[in-house]
Design a protein that fits this description.
The chain is built from seven helices and four strands, in the order H-H-E-H-H-E-H-E-H-E-H. It is of the alpha+beta class. The longest helix is centred in the middle third of the chain and has 34 residues. The chain is globular and about 45 Å long.
Length: 174
Amino acid sequence: MNLDFRDVLAGRFSCRSFGAAPVPRERIVELLEAMQGAPSAGNLQPWRFLVVIGAAHRRALADAAFGQEFVALAPVTIVVCAVPDECARTYGARGCDLYCLQDTAAATENLLLAATAAGLGACWVGAFDEASVRRALALDPGWRPVAMIPIGVPAEAPPRRTRRPLEAVTRWIE
């Protein structure tokens, strides 16, 4: 599928219903490459991407996400982790508290857009208990789970979305 960028932006939605078809490993690698291409402060790339395909682990992630069942039902969930210490070494507290989170957010958005361009559905899940995710995936102590992104073939059509008027969210300063 080859979409114009505006079509990708318009077609991206928070998909919470997935078909049973698996996501081919080659496609997952393409999504990971899109994530890796995201901007990062000082090009430090303080992120780790965990590709969760095992049903028991996806179930544990759904439980950590306060029972959001679609996390368990998607054929793959990518957990995006920040590594704050990698930013702190260069940028101090601001790197630890902000830059590493901005970097993982940029990687996550790249993933969402790449999934849409590939005809896949995805959803950015931020509501979860970090400690539960740490335990479920046996994360390294310095890794902070920031987002979970369930991915699969959408079993739902994109809903009609509205956005606030541009004038309501924009200020021009001359």
